[in-house]
Structures are given as C-alpha cells and as structure tokens.
Amino acid sequence: MAATSKIEWTDATWNPVRGCSKISPGCKHCYAETFAERFRGVPSHPYEQGFDLRLVPEKLAEPLRWATPRKVFVNSMSDLFHKDVPDSYIVSVVRVMTVANWHTYQVLTKRSERLRDLLKTKLRFAADAPHIWWGVSVEDRRYGLPRVEHLRSAPARVRFLSVEPLLEDLGRFELSGIHWVIVGGESGAGARPLLKAWVTSVRDQCRSARVPFFFKQWGGVHKSRTGRELDGRTYDALPDVPWVAPVMDRERRLEAIAVVESNGKAA
User: Where does the pLDDT of residue 221 fall: very low under 50, low under 70, confident under 90, or very high at 90 and above?
Assistant: First the structure.
C-alpha cells in the first residue's frame, strides 16, 4: 500500500494483486504497465516480473495496519476482477475491506460483468457497505457504456464511473443509480486528445441527474501544464455517503492482521 497517492480523487493505494492484461482501447497507454515494465528483471523489486499478473497475499492485511482513515484505491496497478484472479482471493480482499471499515475503498474495474455477477453472489455480503465504492472504467461508447449498464444492475450501495481516458463523445447515457462520475484525459507520451465538448456533455448530464462530478485532468504529454480547470473552475465533488466507523484498537487490529496473514499463507 502506498501511504500517499498523486491520484487526485484518492488518498492511498492498495495492491494485493499486481499486473494485468489489455482488453479495450482505454488500456492502450496503461500507466501501470509502463511503470511496472521498467523494473522487469530487477531482483527483489515488487515488479521484478513486470506487469505479469500475480497475487500478492502478503499485502492483504495492509489496510488493517493503518489507524488513520483514508480513501483507498484498490488495485491501482491491476484489476481485482481479472479472469485469472480466483473468486476465493477476491472474497479474501473484500473481507479485509469489511473488517478495516474505517477506510473508504474505491474498487475500479473494466471487467464489469464479473463485478456484477460476484456482487450478486459471493460478494453479496459487501454489496451494501457504504464504505466500499464499486466502479467501472468508461472510455468510449462501444466498450465503456455497456459497463455502465452492468454496474447499474449490480446490487451495490455506491456505484461510480471513471470516465478516463475519455476517447470520444459518449452521447446521452443513463446515470440513474450512479453516485459519482470522474472524467479525465489521457496523459503521457502518445496521449490521445480530449475535446472540451466531450467533457461538458458528461458534466451537464451529471448536473441534470444530480450526480457528483469530478474533473481530474485535461491530460496530454505535459498534464501539469494543461491542468484540471474546466470553464474557469475545478470540479472536486465526491459521493454524498455519510460514513464514520471507529478505528479498531491496536490489540484487535494485530489479532486481525495475524488471522489475515495466516489465511493468506494457507491460500
């Protein structure tokens, strides 16, 4: 887990899975892959295996070590619902979220059908938790908008969309049942363009549907130069989900960590 994050809409990251594989146009310039592949072959580095997918059970208990509540982006360097991650491991990750419930978890996937199906079955125990936000990536109409419908049909308490990188005009789409929308452009070498009209269309639909809107960045090769202002202001709205849970005392946290680590070794 990274104690801090440069991602504008979260406080920290937690990666009990590392690596992924590409499934749609939004994956073309994956920042996580670019970062991980720099370290392929470096002995003892967390990404010695590059961006090959692997489970990291020794990371499972990390949220329990944090006594200060945070917004935690789950698997910023992977996708929890990748086809090669066993159902049983996904359940283990989510059970940690339910125990360390003083944090807020932001779970984002492109594998929206598996997310929907598991929330209806093996993850039903966590679907209603207000401190676990379930989200899907949306980059275009062909691949992204079907994910919105999968998410809307999932029995989740909090649903969000990460519309990044936004690659085209999405047109009109249904926002009922969605509690937060993030929009952003692609950044880094080879970044594909983002048109203002695409962004304002989503913003205006969020406004009409009363869905909180967060504009992350314009992106580009030098995203620090393009910034994140839209029409002269920043948009930083978050879901309106009241949730305050007491932090587990140190002794109980240590006991919980021991249980999680023991189960992780046995898996």
Answer: confident
